[in-house]
Amino acid sequence: MKFLWTEDINSDLYKKCLELRKEVFVKEKNSSLDLEIKDEDRCIYLGLEEDGNIIGTGRIFLNDDKTAIFQRIAIKKEYRSKGYGSLMINEMENKCREKSISTINIPASMHAIEFYTRLGYRQKGEIFIRGSIEHVWVEK
After folding, report:
1. Is residue 61 part of a domain?
2. Please, what is the average pLDDT of the chain?
3. Model confidence pLDDT, tens digit, residues 92-132
4. Are 96 and 80 in contact (CB under 8 A)?
5. 51 domain residue, yes or no
6. Three-class DSSP category at 11
7. Residue 20 in domain
8. Number of domains in the chain
9. Comparing C-alpha atoms, which of 63, 136, 139 is closest to residue 104?
10. Is residue 120 domain-resident?
11. What is the CATH number of the domain that holds 49?
12. What is the spatial distance between Cα 57 and Cα 74, in angstroms, rounded to a whole number?
């Protein structure tokens, strides 16, 4: 298993990450493709590779010099509930520390609140709908 990073939306890694996001968010969760590709050129992308395949992805949107938003975090269906999500969030947090980011926000789907709470995130704000899915902001 290894973590791969890119900011190049023309790279093979980015394309593989986008395919996984389409699989998870557009096909499984019926989210809009437009939502998937919003702000693509303003993010840093993480791909989690296992046996030559991208099995997890997420992106970091740098909101400003001190604040980041983790977005579009996805794990391939057959790899879920095996600890990969926690490993990815940890890697994304490490990348933020390298960039001296002090605050991380995540628009978390309601079914993932317990996951983020275990990782030290706090819920803030009210429930909102994004791509027909209920979310709430969490922060660390």
Report:
1. yes
2. 93
3. 999 999 999 999 999 999 999 999 999 999 999 999 988 77
4. no
5. yes
6. coil
7. yes
8. 1
9. 139
10. no
11. 3.40.630.30
12. 5
Three-state secondary structure of 19-74:
HHHHHHHHHHCCCCHHHHCCCHHHEEEEEEEECCEEEEEEEEEECCCCEEEEEEEE
Sheet holding 43-50, edge to edge: 2-6, 43-50, 53-62, 67-75, 103-109, 133-139, 122-130
Single-letter residue type at 113: I
CA distance 68 to 89: 13
CA distance 50 to 47: 10
Q: Which residues contact 102 (CB under 8 A, 6 or more apart)?
A: 66, 67
Q: What is the CA radius of gyration of the chain?
A: 14
pLDDT tens digits, 17-73: 999 999 998 888 877 777 677 788 899 999 999 999 999 999 999 988 899 999 999
Structure tokens belonging to residue 61:
């949107």
- Give the pLDDT score at 70: 97
CB count, 10 Å around CB of 38?
A: 13
- Return the SS3 of 16: helix
Instruction: Give the domain extent around 62.
Output: 2-105
